[in-house]
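Help wanted!
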Amino acid sequence: MRANVFTDEALGRYAGQFVWLSIDTENAANAKFLARFPIHVLPTMLVVDPKGENAVMRYAGGATVRQLEKLLADGQHAFRARGNSADSILVSADKAAAEDKSDEAIKLYEKAIAAAPKSWPRLGRAAEALTLALSMAQRSEVCAAAARDLYPRLKGTTSGANVASTGLGCATDLDPNNVKRGELLAMLEHDTRQAFDDPKLRKHLSGDDVSGLYQSLIAARDSAKDTAAAHQLREEWIAFLNKEAAATKTAEQRAVYDSHRLTAYLELGTPERAVALLEQSERDFPNDYNPPARLAVAFKAMKKFDEALAASGRALEKAYGPRKIGIYRTRADVYAAKGDKAGVRKTLEDAIRYAQSLPEPQRSDRTIASLQKKLDELAQ
Amino acid sequence: MAILLIASAAIASAKEVLPFVENDYAKAVARARSKDLPIFVDAWAPW
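Answered by r_m:
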């Protein structure tokens, strides 16, 4: 090849498009190169990206001038695509998401999906990540539109179910005056329902995922003011949750459903039905603040204020981190419902002191300001 | 003499169709990075 291919004038137009490196595999000077790129067939041709020093193309064996031209074109294409492939963009998107750079992550997930080849195995994961990030950023219209566009490509998969459900949640959150709301709601409710009713798919969905589908479908019926259907779905939802919880093997697995079950019972207007299961979890996990914190919410809804205060007191003893502020808030609400102003004041003061004591990354000025505002309103 | 020179110039230009760096990976990487070009490697053996 050195004698008759690389010397062919036809290759001249490629001269400035690569840096050309000749490696004599017998030469000791090339030991480092060969450690990085083991060569087992001679000749072997590689195209290497100098940045990551990784091969973007490899061809073992000799080639004619015409074959080599094709290899050079492929190598060039692979090199240009190195930072643009859907996979490498997805890696950057995940990195941005992990660093809490939500806007950047959203842009990169969109870019990865746009660059995706026809049957890209990562499309489902990228689509789920994108819609979830948009939903959390409260960009409801973009979220719902993305879900509507992506669902047809993911139909019949667990990702498709989650994308439709997240998108439906976003559509429900849209401003009632938004002109696209009706169409997005209708399409995404249809898609979510389709995933929900697919028995083959159901077997592959986690209990959490199915619970999420119920919540989106219920929210959609609520927004359509279809009280009967919403109530029916809620009854089905709690029956599903109770069945899933009963089928678990450990207390830890069962407790995963506690928050879902409490939410369902609250929405059904029957918080008393959540008390026994939460008390069971409090006995099973005496050091966990979650069961008494949830009991406080249930008792508050039942207007059993003293029991709510006792439960939130037990939760506060064990709680830590920013979540503890939520427990203070519930406690303040209970005092307010009791008409105990002094209790509200003391609880808010405790909450502010606690919020201010949190270390820098956990401390939220917005949280402190909102607690302070509540306290100021009390004085008026 | 004149004919010989032309012949060797022709050989030299043929060899220069693709300006290969010989057995110096580090040099090729540095050059490729500075020009943002991919490296084409021909790994061969003299036998």
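OP: Thanks! One thing I noticed: Residues 99 and 168 of chain A are 27 Å apart (CA to CA).
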